Amino acid sequence: MLLQFLAASGVLAVLTMVPGPDMAVVTKRAVGSSWQDGLRTVGGITIGLLMWGLLTVVGLAAIVAASAMVYTVVKLAGAAYLVFLGAQALLHSRRAHSVAVAAAVPSPVGNPWRTGLVSNLFNPKIAVFYTGLLPTLAPSGLSPHLGMMLLVLMHAVLTLGWLGGYVMLLAKARAFFERLAVRRAMDRVTGVVLIGFGVKVAASQP
To answer: What's the pTM?
Structure first.
């Protein structure tokens, strides 16, 4: 069973480190506001994973993964939210045409906890991942529900550590990211990336 957990943790670690919408949302918040807001966003994402885990155990996530209509509604809502965040970042980059204007550009609006939570909950791929892949990784010596919950907790801890460390790395380079040219470039890059992920989510299939 220990070997199964180690193998599962390796798979989850790789999947956690693959860049995706969560990392783009965290980047936007950490660079556009503060590292504290970045960590709060990571906290919201982690709570979202735990909620998906709970839904998976009680069977609701399987409905999202299996129902074409429910999956479509969730994915389009998530895609629209990502596009909104991307457009917001692009708008901020257009306003920052001088140091004076850049100083007046507001930080990203909305509660960072809610931003992370919403972006994660409206990602139906998590439902597919939890109902499709996690059961195959669950240790055979445990009950299915207990095995799944342990893997969900492991994924949440890995996500918290990985994205939290990423936020602190961004904080170390805060002076670099506060430069006007860099700030504008980061806003544009994260804006395009978020919109790209939104389009990808909208075009995805269960």
So the answer is: 0.72
